[in-house]
Design a protein that fits this description.
It is a single chain. By secondary structure, the chain is of the alpha/beta class. The protein has eight helices and eight strands; from the N terminus they run βαβααβαβαβαβαββα. α6 links the parallel β5 and β6. α1 packs across α7. The relative contact order is 0.15.
Length: 243
Amino acid sequence: MSRILVTGSADGLGRAAAHSLLTAGYEVVVHARNPERAAGLRPLLDRGADIVVGDFTDRDAVRRIAQELNDAEPLDVVIHNAGVWSGPAVMPVNIIAPYLLTALLRGPRRLVYLSSGSHFGGRAHPSLAGIDWRGEHSGSYADSKLFVTALAAAVARIHPGVLSNAVDPGWVPTKMGGPNAPDDLELGHRTQEWLATSDDPQALTTGGYWYHRQRRPPHEAVHDQAFQERLLEALARETGAAI
């Protein structure tokens, strides 16, 4: 069975996906940002999950996690679920961390990136030179989700042997979404699991933007090769790691 990393799996959609994948018999690696959050994952660890711990606002922690994972049993799939809604951590967690893991991890043949309908409000900056990648100030959630959606499409283009897709889970009642969010929490994590594991012909496609197993057109910049290249160049300069 596939070995699957689910980032940001201490609660919300990530935990739901990890629980569901374990129940289906997959090997799962969960992730928490600190030991206190990791302690809450004991029920999944007792069922056989492995764990990595590290704060995605710290690039060195992301690099260490990547090295730990490369030294362990190979991963088949990464679900880039970790995300934050607001504050200085937005760019480090929502785009820098998944970019670094994508650049550094060896072996995954399927990549699933958590996007959002908010990505339609992101700005396809003519120049990305002024973006606050380090999180010194509060970041734009919409921009971060546009960037990670474009990253998914760029990886699909550059590495056609890798299935790389972005998923809008909907506005679901998690800690991030709030208790009154109108979308279905169960449906919110099923599409990423399907893209991670299914042999359904649709799930074996790449470069898509998905909502509840339906492929939808994303922001026009997502498949703009020039924008993708500007984004990849900016991220490579910023992190010192190239895809």
